[in-house]
Amino acid sequence: MSSAIEKALSLTAGEAGLAAQLDGDFSNGPVSQPPEAGLPFGGLLAALCARAMRQGLGLTGPLRSLSVQYLSMAAYDMPLVFRPRLLRGGRSVAYATVEAWQGERITHHGQATFGADVAGERLAPSSAPPPPLDSLDPARTLGGPMLPRFARHVEYRFETGPHILGGNVGRAPVERMWMRLGDNRPLDADGLCYLLDAIYPPSWTAFREPPVMTSVDLRYDLLGEPTPEIAPDGWAFFEFRLLDHGGGWAVDEAACWGADGQPLAVARQRRKVLPARS
Q: What CATH number is given to the structural domain containing 67?
C-alpha cells in the first residue's frame, strides 16, 4: 500500500501530460485551519517537477541540479499537469525543462540537469559529523496549532530550538536539525527535494511577528547519493540560514549532510516579502 507521500508524488500519464492531484494534506497552511488557508507545499512541487522530467523523459541518471520558479498559485480543485521537454541528452549529461499547468494557466517552470558519475578522483571535504541523532531530545520537534500540514509528514529533531517566532532575535537566524520523511522511506532525490524546503523561512526566527512571504524561485544542487549507510533509516542533518532580508525580498540557503558529515545537497531560495496588512 502506498504511503501518503508516495501518493502525493505520483504522476499519471495522459494526453495533456503527467498529472498530479494536489492533496490539501500537503498545504503549507496550519493544521488548525482548512487546507485552503495555505498553498500547496513548495518542496512537494519541486519534487514533482523533478519526477515529471525523470518519468516523462525516461531519464536514468541521478538528479544533479533543479531550479523551480513559482509563477502563480496552484489550487487543489483540479489536477496539476506537467509537460517535460528534453533540451539535450547525452551519454553522461541530460538537460531538461518542465512546465506545470492548471487548465490554461501556467503555475510552475522547472529545469534540471541529470548526469551519471564517472570514474575519477573525488574531492568533497566533509564537515564535522553532525551531533548524534540519539544525543538530541526527541521533544525538540514541531507541533501545535500553527504546524503546517505538510510538516505532519516529516520527523524533526532539533539541535537547538525550534526558534520560530523570534527565537533568534539578536543572533544568527539559523536552524539546525535532523529530519526524515514520516513514512520512514529511504532517503532519495525526491525526498531531498521535499525536505530541503520542509521548514519555515529562517527570517521567521528573527522576527517575533514574522512577515508574510511567498516563494519566487528555488534552486537545489544534489552532491551525493543518500545511501542507507549515509542516511540511516532515512535521517539526514540540515541547516537553514538567512542570507539577506530587506527591500521586499528574502534570500536563504539550506545545506544537508549525511551522518558521517558527507555533503548531500545545498539549496537557495528567493522569497517575496508581502506588504503588511494595515
A: 2.40.160.210
Number of domains in the chain: 1
Question: SS3 for 49?
Answer: helix
Q: Using alpha carbons only, what angle is made at residue 263 by residues 227 and 214, rounded to the nearest 5 degrees?
A: 105
d(CA 114, CA 112): 7
Distances (CA, A) of 244 to 160, 265, 269: 22, 21, 11
Asked, for residue 133, whether it belongs to a domain, the answer is yes
Return the C-alpha cell found at 220.
Answer: 537545489
Write the pLDDT tens digit of every residue in 255-268: 999 998 889 999 99
> Per this entry, what is the length of the chain?
278
pTM: 0.94
Over residues 120-148, the mean pLDDT reads 84
Return the pLDDT at 163.
95
123 domain-assigned: no
Structural domain boundaries, residue 221:
4-117+129-273
